[in-house]
Fold this sequence. Notes:
By secondary structure, the protein is mainly α. It has a single domain (4-133), classed as Orthogonal Bundle (N-utilizing Substance Protein B Homolog, Chain A), CATH 1.10.940.10. The protein is 70% helix and 0% strand. It contains seven helices and no strands. It has helices spanning 4-22, 26-36, 44-56, 58-66, 78-93, 99-113, 118-133. Helix 1 (4-22) packs parallel to helix 3 (44-56) and helix 1 (4-22) crosses helix 5.
Amino acid sequence: MANKKSRARHHAVQAIYQWQMTGQDIRDIREQFISEQDPKSFDIDYFEQLLRGVPTNLSQLDGELKSCLDRSIESVDPVERAILRLGAFELTMRPELPYRVVINEAVELAKIFGAEQGHRYVNGVLDKLAQRCRQGELKPR
């Protein structure tokens, strides 16, 4: 079974997707998720950090993603958009997380929630972003 941080990401992607699609207040979505899930089954603090971090830094995250995308962020599938924004948040705002972990987690989320080949797109976009914002961690290719 996935660890508590992975499950926090799993719930956060669902919550961010809901926020993107409905425009509902992120605090209301947070309350809904916490009331519907067993709080001991996931890292609730990390879930909340992701849920606050993505909307708070949205324009910066979308700006970081823009040069890595082959289309506008708005035209990316909404599920993959939520996953990319979460991955961009972790790559740019959580330098203590190894970039490979961030990308692998995002790819797994895309396999669960995304379109059939969506995980490949997510992998390619986040790999480009990691090459730009995590240069010190990457080995030259």
